[in-house]
Amino acid sequence: MASHRRPKQPSRTRVTVLTTAAAAAVALSSQAANAAPSEKLSKSEVKAKVDKLYEEQEQATEKLNGAEEKQEKLQKEISTIQDNVARGQEELNELRDSMGLAAAAQYRTGSIDSSLQLFLSSNPDDYLDKASTADQLSAQQVEALKKIQEKQRELAQERSEASAKLKDLSATRTELAKQKKVVQSKLAAAQKLLNSLTAAERAELAADEARASRSSAERVDLGDTGSASSRAAAAFSAAQSKLGSPYVYGASGPSSFDCSGLTSWAYAQAGVSIPRTSQSQANAGTRIYSTSDLKVGDLVFFFNDLHHVGLYAGNGQIIHAPRTGTVVRYESMSTIGGPFMFGVRV
User: Fold this and answer.
1) Is 320 a catalytic residue?
2) How sure is the predictor about 31, in pLDDT bands with cuts at 50, 70 and 90?
3) Which of 24, 46, 84, 281 is 20 to 30 A from 275 via CA?
């Protein structure tokens, strides 16, 4: 006999979920149908957004430069420590060998003392802590053991320091990778915005940028340039020789530059070593807060976080590498896009 069971009814919970999902789908469909298509940004709006992205990219670039500089410094320090450890281990081995030879000589004559036997089979740190056994050593043996102890402590300290720096290096490399991604994402977003423009609009922006950039053959009224120090004048002259060179993030010459890459390269040509990043360069000399006190070749810093730097050129002008898509050029301090913070006389 066939079974006539009632079909199982869906639970209230399941009905509620299905009903809610259906309602949400209807609402989304309605919104999609009624939504207006996104309006195309104007050329000026795109430029404003792109400029903002380039500014954020430059901020990330200076952090990237700082991480690279720190990485190089740590690698050199670690290499030095490892060399010291290797030399120290050789010295320790020689000291131990000399103690071993002394023990062998005593053994051959049958005069090896129990204290030296103890040294040869255990840690000399524990050994010398025992006054009773120390009395059994000759003055020469005590001195040799003390040298071994000291060398062991030095090696332990240097190995610990190397381990700490290796951890710091690992963290720095992680930060380096992070900042590279930030820079690349900003550039990609800016390019996506530019690609949204028509070919004619992109050509107009390029023409505007070309007019803003000056080639090294063009002259600018820089006012009185005779008051610069010889080093600052040499750095300024080096920067002038690079007018028209492209901005490339992370570049420090000789064919392309970012902002702090240009200033550090220029001063290097004058025989002066300054830090790589703009924030560090802000501490490379005497700060000058009044624009009227600036001299040609002084470093000039902009934005609250000091992420942009150039070289003062006189008459309110600077030479700098502005941002992606531009070249090294003269520009008025009033058009940088961020507030002037101070100058630095290296």
Assistant:
1) yes
2) very low
3) 84
**Residue of 151, 308, 323, 345 with catalytic role:** 308
- Please tell me the number of Cα atoms within 13 Å of 195 on its side-chain side: 6
From 259, 270, 284, 288, active-site residue: 259
Tell me: the pLDDT tens digits for 40-92?
A: 788 889 989 998 999 999 999 999 999 999 999 999 999 999 998 999 888 88
* pLDDT at residue 150 tops 70: yes
The residues near 251 (Cβ < 8 Å, ≥ 6 apart) are 257, 258, 261
Side-by-side strand order, sheet with 299-302: 286-288, 340-345, 299-302, 308-314, 317-320, 329-332
| Residues 219 and 282 sit within 8 Å (Cβ to Cβ) | no
Question: Would residue 307 show up in a list of annotated catalytic residues for this protein?
Answer: no
- Is a pLDDT exceeding 80 seen at residue 175? yes
* Alpha-carbon dihedral 160, 165, 167, 168, rounded to 10 degrees: 150
- Rounded to two decimals, the pTM is 0.66
Q: What is the mean pLDDT of the chain?
A: 79
Residue 40 makes CB contacts below 8 A (sequence gap 6+) with: 196
Whether the upstream peptide bond of residue 254 has omega within 30° of 0, thus cis, is yes
The active-site residue, picked from 47, 70, 214, 320, is: 320
**Amino acid identity of 79?**
S
